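Weekly structure sync, notes
Attendees: PL (lead), two postdocs, one rotation student
Agenda item 3: pending single-chain targets
PL asked that the sequence for the first pending target be pasted directly into the notes so everyone works from the same version. It is reproduced below exactly as submitted, 138 residues in total.
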Amino acid sequence: MDYKLNKDEKLCSRTAVNSLFDQGKSLMAFPLRAAYRIRPQGDHPVQFLISIPKKRIRKAVGRVLLRRRTREAYRLNRRSLLFPALLQHDCGVDIAFVYLDSNIAPYSVINEKMTLLLNRIARAVSEQAGASIDTQQP
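Predicted structure, written out during the meeting:
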């Protein structure tokens, strides 16, 4: 199984980020919040970004540490939890992970909450794809 994170999987487009936060839905699993927007599948099924606010974690060392922990938790869990639902329903998703706590959480907590969020997003993708199929039938 390929666990690489390619540059193409990063969400960089300003318009995509704005539409994600304007039109997307949000889930919480403290200390992480995930904003997501389901879209038609493009080049990559998932594009993501990670935000560790300076207001919460003042020191850059702490922000970098949390960004690495969050990225690693996402990297290890995305293939098994999120990709099957996306490939089954032929859609993609943009996700933004925002860290909410003012204390630095251990990796085990971040990993646990990341799996919870990815499971919820996969369930939402399945529900939305099922709902769109039901509305298209006469």
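Discussion points:
- Residues 64 and 80 are 26 Å apart (CA to CA).
- The chain has four helices and four strands.
Action: rotation student to compare against the earlier draft before next sync.
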